[in-house]
């Protein structure tokens, strides 16, 4: 296979078809747009890369939102209350 | 390839450890300081799951250490420092304008068929999207090999999912506990 050559060089090579197919199959479960297409449809490499990027950034935003929510929850609670104890048990 | 329950448990344990380190001060700080503590602990916890075996986790630990060296050293006291640092030099970025200009000159000399044009544009697009992915994954600048980039991306995504799932469970449980 002509792709084998590019797999072995370590400089920036184009992603080969095999690698892309592998990536797509693994990302199918995460990426709704790609999952919804029929298996026989080809998905372009640039679409997969873009969707992967979008998904990662979405996860970053979720972590940020959750950190916000948690810090507000910790703030809204009285030191000696029962709620404070609940949170302390969960987290610390 | 999904987050496993053992990954979830390990993440939670590490994250709790990180928050414990902030414990003495957490009651007297501002909301934004607390958020920072929560986020930094969560990131170190996520990266520590890989024990220095992936590029992204090493890069994330380095980045967090530059923001809070004490926290990182406390949370990772068991691991040798050498395993945690990316030793390879980052991929050298070419000056875009100069490259574009010299490519234009070369292209004028060749005559290309329509099909070649389309293929060339597709190649360019993939290259651009690959660079975008490299920017999204920590330590991407160290991944000169595209195969490595993909492998690291997949592992990073699974780890992020673990982080999000556990954090969401905790936040929902805490919110429910307060409302009662």
Q: How large is the radius of gyration of chain A?
A: 22 Å
Largest interface: A-B, 48 and 50 residues
How many distinct domains of chain A?
A: 1
Report on the biggest sheet of chain A. Answer: none
Treating each run of at least 4 consecutive H or I residues as one helix, how many helices of chain A? 5
Question: Can you lay out the helices and strands and say which pair or pack?
Answer:
The complex is a heterodimer of chains A (92) and B (180).
Chain A (H helix, E strand, L loop, with lengths): L2 H6 L8 H11 L4 H5 L8 H31 L6 H10 L1
Chain B lengths: L4 H22 L4 H18 L6 H13 L1 H7 L20 H14 L4 H23 L9 H34 L1
Helix pairs in contact in B: 1-2, 1-7, 2-3, 2-7, 3-4
Task: Tell me what the structure shows.
The complex is a heterodimer of chains A (92) and B (180). With 92 residues, chain A is mainly alpha-helical. Chain A has one domain. Chain A contains five helices and no strands. The longest helix of chain A has 31 residues, at 45-75. The radius of gyration of chain A is 22 Å and the shape is rod-shaped. The two termini of chain B are 37 Å apart. Chain B has 180 residues and is an all-alpha fold. Chain B has seven helices and no strands. Chain B has one domain. Chain B has helices at residues 5-26, 31-48, 55-67, 69-75, 96-109, 114-136, 146-179. The mean pLDDT of chain B is 83. At the A-B interface, α2, α4 and α5 of A face α1, α2, α6 and α7 of B.
Concise structural overview:
Chain A has 92 residues and is mainly α. Helix content of chain A is 68%, strand content 0%. The longest helix of chain A is centred in the middle third of the chain and has 31 residues, at 45-75.
List keywords for this structure.
heterodimer; A: 92 residues; mainly alpha; 68% helix; disordered N terminus; B: 180 residues; 73% helix; HLH_DNA-bd_sf (chain A)
